[in-house]
Structure formats: C-alpha cells, structure tokens
Specification:
about 250 residues, Alpha-Beta Plaits, 2 domains, 9-stranded mixed β-sheet, two-stranded antiparallel sheet, 7 helices, 11 strands, elongated
Length: about 250
C-alpha cells in the first residue's frame, strides 16, 4: 500500500500511525494474516517511515492477508476508515519479492519560508561541491555525528510564490524550495540533516521552521530518478507472465 501523511497528521508518530492502520484494517474487514505464538499480531511490515513532523505523499506498508481481496475495494474501505490526513492512495497485489528491496532513496521537497531561491541555490552548490559534511544530531543517547554528503544524490533550489502572493498581496517574503534525492543510508539522513549541512557549508539558517514533504521513494535509475516500487506489480497484473520472462 502507498499512503500519504498530510496536514496536521504529519506530527503523528509512527507508532500512532501503525496503531491507526491496524484499527482501520479491522474496520475495513481485511482478512489479515497473524503471526503464531503466545501473542499473535497482524503481519504488517513498514518500509522506512517518515520522521515525526514530516509530511509525505509516498509512505509504504505491506499487509499479509489470508484470502484474496480486490485491491481497489480494500483501498476505498481502508481510506474511509482512516482519519483525514492519513490517505490511502494505492493498493496492489504483490507480485513477489520484498518491498524493502525496491526502495533505496527518497525524493524530498522542503519549503523554506523567508529564504530566497538565490541564497538557497548558493548553499546547495556549496554542499554539492563538498565531499564530506558532518553534522550533529541529538538522539536519546546523546549527540551523534553523521556525514550527510554521501547520501545526497542530487539537490537543486527553486522559488515558490508565497500564499500571500497567491492571494494578491503585493509584498510577501520569499520562499525557497529545496528538491533533493537522498539515499536511505544507515543511519538515515533526514531532511533536517540536509538543512544542517547547508548551515555548515553556507551559514544558511531559515528564519522559520522548514516544512519537508517526501514526494517519492524507490530504487535509483541511471539519471538519479526513482523507479516506482509498484511498477512490477502493475506489470504482472496486466500480464501475469511478466515475472517469468524477467
């Protein structure tokens, strides 16, 4: 399944999202498969959940079922059972293999109100020209240092008109947009880590908190783009012999 985390729901923790999904699956009547043992639990596998506070248009989860279901019917029933802001966008029947193996990078879009595209572009160029940029991240076990640069496949800056400008207000603050493809390394490099790297190399400090949205996930192609994780599943649905020929 691919789902979105939008609006205020981006502040929901992954644990709460998982609980919400389990309840919604029961309400939708999904014939879920359960683990064996003293405390059985639904067989649900999460793939690289977005950090708390980050929105996403491309979150993925695998659900095992004991009976065949119609993917679109399940999508509609599950989406109806979910709260607004957690939106089920697509459900496909797995063609085999592990969904995790089809995902190695994310494409992010980060809005930086108060930062001009020119300043952002200069900072991005400095980041890309550097081989190593170490940043500190606060964790429950203390501060952790990680090198951001190797995870950044590409990045570029552009400018978005602010909401005030859309409404016809003449003067409005700039809003730079950072688009980037970042490998899902261990430890994971998050959007705020990339922003910390921009601060290190160029002193870029947004005047207000940035808003990050994950736009896509998948395996990298030769041009730095991402291959849709569901491409194989759709191909097999249209042509059941596609896997054998591969």
């Amino acid at each position: 399944m691919r789902y979105a985390k939008r609006g205020r729901l981006r502040f929901t923790s992954h644990r709460d999202v998982a609980r919400t999904f389990e309840r919604a699956l029961r309400r939708a009547g999904a014939p879920m498969a359960y683990s064996q043992g003293f405390s059985p639990h639904p067989k649900i596998s999460w793939v690289g959940a977005a950090p708390t506070g980050v929105a996403s248009e491309a979150e993925y989860v695998e659900v095992s079922v004991v009976d065949a279901v119609d993917p679109e019917a399940l999508r509609v029933a599950l989406d109806d059972a979910m709260p607004p802001g957690l939106d089920v966008l697509e459900v496909v029947q797995a063609a085999g293999g592990n969904l995790t193996e089809r995902i190695e990078a994310s494409r992010w879009s980060v809005e930086l109100p108060g930062v001009s595209a020119e300043d952002l572009r200069d900072a991005v160029e400095r980041l890309l020209a550097t081989e190593s940029v170490e940043v500190e991240r606060a964790t429950k076990d203390g501060k952790r240092v990680l090198d951001v640069r190797p995870a950044v496949v590409w990045a570029r800056a552009r400018e978005r008109a602010s909401d005030a400008e859309h409404e016809g207000v003449a003067s409005s603050p700039p809003c730079g947009i950072l688009d980037a493809v970042v490998r899902q390394t261990t430890p994971a490099v998050r959007p705020d880590d990339v922003l910390s790297a921009l601060r290190v190399v160029a002193g870029l400090v947004p005047p207000v908190p940035a808003k990050a949205t994950r736009m896509a996930q998948g395996r990298l192609d030769d041009e730095g783009g991402l291959i849709d994780p569901f491409a194989l599943d759709r191909a097999v649905e249209q042509d059941p012999g596609a896997v054998e020929r591969r």
